[in-house]
What does this fold into?
Amino acid sequence: MTETPRQQIEHILGGKISPFDEQELPGVVPLEGSEVVFFSETAGSGLYEQFDRLTEAQKPPLMKFGGVSTTKHTLTLPDGQIFHAIKYRGDLEGWRRQIREGARALDVVLGRIEQGSKFVLSDGREFALADCVHGRLHTGLGARP
Amino acid sequence: MPLPDLSSALRSFQQALDDGQIALSPGSLDAQLFVHLDRPNGELRLTYVRLETEEQAFKVYENGKLRAYRADATTVVAGRDVAVDAKYVDDWASSPRNPANDRPFLRNVDGTMSMDQQERANMLDQARRYSETFDGGAVYHTNSVDLASAWSRIFHDAGLNNIRFVITPAVKK
It folds into this structure.
């Protein structure tokens, strides 16, 4: 029987393609060579615009190699504040500092998942993940970075 | 008056869009809102649709600068992000992506890269960015076994071991 393109990809990559609803919130399960950080949403700005500002506020860049990507994952606090997950690879320490300095300059709150169950924010707040809502960001074709 | 059920119309619209039978233009005020114009039975009809993209923004640190790019789509396989792209070929023999090609009329007299060479350099650069940024690397759909074979070797030689090909037959519209 001929494999569908989806089955081919799964066969080649040795794993199942996960639809969004089956995807784990990034950062819950640590992955070697990459890290996830969440940043607080700025009202009135699109994801890509905020992503641009956050990653480019610190000049010159502090990382020496690697990349950072947006995701479609959001986490909403019990008070309704929304955070977006981004993921970086390569010079992890450099990216970590780049994003931290950018957030500091822009007054953006960062969050990380610790021990798979806590959401710890840069402003000192801490939440049980179970009290937050994992959501999906819907991006339109016109939402250019 | 009951509202009409638009679901079947939307399904046929989606099918026509997937089949490449209709063209859409983005709105100038809301770029997520697209419009299709046609004239069934001579009457002007404007169909509006809001579309979501699978595109994903990413940035790579290259040559001392942070540069912005977009992946056509991404997926998650075994917990890892994978960029998904397509490289379709009409005629491998004349394709600029064919490493055997360096057509004399496209060569630059000043010694800089020819168009063929530039195209191949771009493809290699793109794969390198995917490889650096996405922990699951990238999957390229292609209709060409020749392209998949040649570029698997090129990527491997460049140390890009997380770039894979899926042969997907091209359908002429």
